[in-house]
User: Fold these one by one.
Assistant:
Number 1:
Amino acid sequence: MGFFDIFRRAPAIRETGALADFIDQNAAFLIQKGMYEYSRARAGHYAKVLLQEPEFLAAIEKARWQGFPLGLALVGEMVEGVLHAAISEDRRAGLDQLIALVLSVFDRYPVPPSIGTMAWEEARSDLERRLDQVGLHAPKFVKDIPGPLADAYFDLMPIHEKLRAADRLAITSYLRVSLINVHDALIKRIDVPAVAQSLLAAPPDTRG
């Protein structure tokens, strides 16, 4: 990347492939950034030592893969809210296609060795269920989306329970602010009518 590339705007999102990449990158970033920042904050002066410990590296590797489906659920629901007005006349079809798109992002990755096949398949089923439930209510404000998943995310933190017992509200706030930032980034890049058309024109969802 050249020096002046850092001043260029990110390319517009006009079709589902670009949207899938956006979901992938931001779901992973949302989960990992919070875990590393929280771990550094809790370790304090010992953060540099902690982040080099093999036991910690193994724990956070497992935690980030456990958290990735949660990140996909959060970003996926946020995306549905952005597209809602454009697909509202056929919301169920649009949501089904969005679920299929998010699951295709999940399926980009092989089973993480630290998770195992059975747990990874269960995580995929939970992700599908959570996204399906989005259609049972009106789109939420972005700040309200993380609430139901904040505890599950907090429980994945690779820090001993005795050291993180009082920090649930801080983690919830982190997810809210971060998801709002992801939303703002998407709004700046997305061509909503074009993406909605691309989504609804995709092959019929064949989820079993």
Number 2:
Amino acid sequence: MLALIAGTFLIGQVLSIVVLALLQPDLFQPDLFGSRLPMLSRLLPVPTILASAAAEIPIFIAVLIGLPRATRVSLRDLGFVRPNLRAIGIALASVVAGVALATVGSNVVSAVTHTGDHAQATEKMFLQMHVPWQIALFAVFAVVLGPIVEETLFRAFAFNAVLRYGGFWTAAVVSSILFGLAHGDPFNALPLALVGMVLCGVYYLTRNVVASMIAHGAFNLLSLIALLFFPQMAGH
């Protein structure tokens, strides 16, 4: 299973580079030092979103195919079923806890590093968008596609994998740390990991990965709405 994920991860990275090369070829032009590495500072929103989708979708497909075979448990038993009203209620209520813990985590990082607030790269990108269709595309990725892929990988797979050898807290901590680190932002790893803990709680209480997807999507939607109307909140 790990080999399958590793293989599809590499495939996804190649696909994302291809997408960037097709949609924003200037990224790969030599810089002042002659390097042809992508100039990340020049990334445009739409190519970045599509490249991220190209990187994540192969992993999502691999997990859906490989997880039942590796665990000998059906997708239904792993929680890929329609959530009931109780599960939806838990998912929506958890958003409050997610916001509170993310705020606490951000404050802790700011206090320890003495570097102030740190907006995520995705927040900065969102604030640069002014065209409605680009904002809508970003919202679809953040509220729908991202939560589906990440909950499948970090809750249905990683959380359950560790849960087989430890209790809830061990599985939640490990999968949440991986969740925080996977976003590639050291300053926001702790806040994101704390949100991941909440999502693990939703999944564990409901045994429904769709419920954690709803919670994840609702958290991201709330964040986007806050940024849309209160852009000065970026990094808080």
Number 3:
Amino acid sequence: MLKEEIAVIREIGEKARETRKNVIFGMIEEDELVKGVYYNSAFFIDKEGAVDSYRKISLPNFGPFNEKRCFKEGKEVKIFNVDDSRVGVLICYDLFFPELSRALLGCDILIYLSASPYTSKPQFEKMLYARAIETSSYVLYANLAGREEDMLFWGGSRAIDPFGKI
């Protein structure tokens, strides 16, 4: 990991311990064994300060998205224990691969961190509800909002119950 990554994670870990809060956030992660290999990752830091990460498996390689040029695919889904709940975490385009959500069956909550542009809003909205219903899990969706260069992101963060209701 880069020194900057370690410093950010350490600082967030200290705050998690101080406030007794669990924290999840997205960040680029450098491979610990191979310099120059990066992952699009979701970090989970529990209220004790323990750190783990999920590396995005499904990298889009079409239109404005060329993630395979920058990142390596992760290899496995992760389940995090949060108090008495099992939490699965996936990132953005992972949502479109039901086998990844099925690998998280039995989780109480599925969290999707995302940077979905406005042009894919209808597809993401449909898939979010489908994943909640098919897995019988709560779905928490956090999406980027606003503009980055020439791309507009639609926001739309929400919580959906296992019956598909917000």
Number 4:
Amino acid sequence: MRAVAYYRVSTAAQGRSGLGLEAQRKAVEQFCQSRGTEMLSEFTEVESGKRNARPELAKALHHAKVTGATLVIAKLDRLSRNAAFLLQLRDSGVKFIAADMPEACDLTVGILALVAQQEREAISQRTKVALAAAKDRGTKLGNPNGAEALRRAGKGNGAAVAALKGAADRHAADLAPVIEQLRSEGIRSLAGLAGALNERCMMTARGGRWHASSVRNLLGRLGS
């Protein structure tokens, strides 16, 4: 596992003195050592827990997302006590672990998200009931010939294709600032960019390594 560490202290005085920060860093380091985890980077925020504007957290999440790393924090309350904020974090697609209770972390976020989950489940259940009722009335559901008919017709699953394209576009947007930074450092060739992305542990949209061809596709999506 690879990790991106995030530390937060509530006041500028704590940030300067290291009060609370060293304890967080020690907890995260001990956790990573116990799991044989490679630490990619560390981000420190000096911010009130009552506010959700966290530029350093945004940077940490971005780095974790583009490298496929896990965001590691010392304690869950270092992120926020705000349930809506935690829901946004959960839905960002970035894995995260609290060093003080790694097994309970996902459960805790799940409990905070319970209301939203129940509503989605209720919608899903109503949909299933409606489809079952339609089936009982004799309504034929779906394509009777399955995917084979689509292949014979030379057509794909439009929704699946659109979803894959959307995911690739979002991944490209996440990497746009990284490409901009590399170019500012004088790295402009496709091979050079591929090598630099690999050195920084950045992943392709499919989780693989970069090559000149995949960089060309990325730049095409970015229109650059």
